[in-house]
Amino acid sequence: MPVHDLGYRTWRGERAAHFLRPLVVARAGIALVFKRRWLRIMLVLAWLPVLFPAFGIFAFEYSSTEPELQDMIVGLVSRPLQQPELGALIRNDPEAARHQVWSTLILMFFRYPQLFAMVALIGLIAPLLVSYDLRTKAYLMYFSRPLSPTQYIIGKSAVIWCLLGMVVTLPALLLYGMGVLLSPDLSVVQQTWDIPLRIFAASFVLLIPTTTLAILFSSLTAESRYATFCWFATWALGFVAYQILTFSPAAMSGDRPRRRRGPVDWEAMGVDLDRWRLLSPYHTLGKVQAWIFGLDTTSASVIPCVVLLVAITVVGFWIVRRRILARLSV
């Protein structure tokens, strides 16, 4: 009998529940990510855009007593946001317009500043999560414990979910809370009680497919720079392709609108805003999020966009899991 047994021994301690095991992976990833000073600065800067919709809600809530604020919020929703009918409703019946105004401003926060912050944040963090483990063989340390590939993937994804929740969901909920505090009385909650639920739904639509796509790129290569390039190229090329294929026919036919006040009627010009939407992740997400907030103005169905996001999630998860199993079977 050997004095020192160096073989494998059965773990005799208590094991964590299966649904808690991804937290081990997530905790390690979050601890490493937050050691980077530039990331902490980026998270702080990502909160700054919330000031613009917050000021919009402030202007709307006090527009009934301040004509200048009313003119400002009416001009905002009528021209930049291209909703003149909402501007007329604000002048005639502010109470009836409250839910739509709040939803519009919160959706603007999702669509413009935070979506770009999301692309940059994931592009700098996600490529390292799996590719670094593959390059250094750190995955062997993870799977030396009772951890399944599915739990490993969820744990890595939870790192991104945590960061995006901090720059997307929390500021949006804070924006809603500020709107409630700025309102004349708490009866506004009865009119807008569903907006927090819509915020969670829009966050879910944003977080799950984008995280899966980023983890997929990270798992396909051991070099994180290649995964970073694929991530940014997918968003940039998709956006450019959608803009060119959608608006170039109108520009080439000479129907390009001149500068004028008010929204542009693209349907009257024969421009189909939904025909090439599935080529661009940015516009696909925008379609679904606008539908969640009840603000979708295009005539096409939202179902193809939902199907595409579900397909990206399911197929991406399956590929990542197969890649990990292939590594473990060597």
Proportion of β residues? under 5%
First-last Cα distance: 32 Å
- Mean of the pLDDT scores? 82
Kindly state the number of beta strands: 0
Low-confidence stretches: none
In the residues, how many domains can be counted? 1
Oligomer: single chain
Structural class: mainly alpha
Helix content: over 70%
Question: How many H/I helices?
Answer: 14
Main pleated sheet: none
Characterize the overall form.
globular
SSE string: HHHHHHHHHHHHHH
Radius of gyration: 24 Å
Architecture overview:
The model has no long low-confidence stretch (mean pLDDT 82). The longest helix has 34 residues, at 149-182. The protein is globular. The protein is mainly alpha-helical and 330 residues long. It has one domain (18-253, 262-328). The protein has helices at residues 22-33, 37-46, 51-61, 67-78, 84-92, 94-111, 113-136, 139-143, 149-182, 188-192, 195-219, 224-252, 281-292, 303-328. Helix 3 (51-61) packs parallel to helix 9 (149-182) and helix 4 runs antiparallel to helix 5 (84-92).
